[in-house]
Batch of 2 targets.
Target 1
Amino acid sequence: MTSFATLFRKELLRFWKVFVQTVAAPVLTALLYLVVFAHALEGRARAFEGVPYTEFLVPGLVMMSILQNAFANSSSSLIQSKITGNIVFILLPPISHVEFFAAYVAAALVRGLAVGAGVAAAALAFVPLRLESPAWALAFAVLGAALLGALGLIAGIVSEKIDQLAAFQNFVIMPLTFLSGVFYSVHSLPPAWLALSHANPFFYMIDGFRYGLFGASDVLPGVSLAVMVVSLVLVSAGALSMLASGYKLRH
């Protein structure tokens, strides 16, 4: 496990040395969303019974920050290494594809959870937070961060240029997170949009995380957990297969 520990530490240092950009800036962005949407929709939008809109909004913003930053960490690290050519220093040592995968995903998980914790802590200045089921909340946060870390790894492997990765983030990750019920309850949508929301795996991550805080959700938390586990297994299998073959890395 020496290879894993070394690569994991390298990935942690990579984002921690630019803490203001990788952690503080996303926290500020989430707070701006909170202030603007809470001011515009408080008292006008309804979500769960007995839950004010501002309280309803916070878990969605926390989870959105976790997912986006976990994806950004693994994908940006890998594409930068490929473009600058220093990926060779990771490929030459005897690091197995499993250790490679685990180190990148673990570092993405740490960054995602760090940003999410920062958003939650900052939100306490605006609204009190409940925590009905801490175990559920932690499970969804960890699984969501791991899933997006693995997906970011795939995006970094497939992409050959920064603009290809940016297209993946802007046209896939961003729409899926914004249309997953971050700012609204999906039960307020028309039937066609409700069906589309249920086909979005990001919806289950955010809805399950809300259950951990409020004890209420749009779908059963067990269903959301099952969707996340299956998604994580499939995405991880794809990433591991690419790493094992050296696809767009070794040749």
Target 2
Amino acid sequence: MDLPTLIAQYGYAAVLAGAVFEGETVLLLAGYSAHRGYLDFAAVTGIAWLGGALGDQCFFWLGRFQGQRLIARRPALRLRVGNAFRLIERHPVAIILTMRFMWGLRMALPIAIGMSRVRWRRFLWLNLLSAALWAPLVAGIGWTFGALLARQPALLHHYEHWVMGAMAAAALLFRAVMRRSRHMPEPPR
């Protein structure tokens, strides 16, 4: 099975699953794939919007009903939720609208918001708006990257598999570095 067939067959399912769980990498690749004609850009953004909104809504309700039990069992999550609480208390609307762009707190924020006093209807509408901003923006970055590469068609066709692999590897490396920096002990004062 070649790459275009594989993307056409499983691409939308990957976008949905990726959008539920911190899906920037998948969405960037889907935007790139849409530029190449393997996926439809409107479908990619619609599915990413739906997956992102549903995922964060589920994490909100998880925080609302199981938040205390969840953070008691996971010390690393407890620290991230604590940091998220401080942000939510100061700027709840801004945090809900920008939570998708806060790497490292992406799942902790909706859980913390669910544990906070933010009303579920307010979260629902702001979450839908946030996902509506996030999906086309991130997919559009992937599309734009594809457009820039398309200026060199022979080069793109020859190295397309490597370009997609490099994009995925760079995103995973960035995520690993971010996670490692969060787990490093603070220097003594």
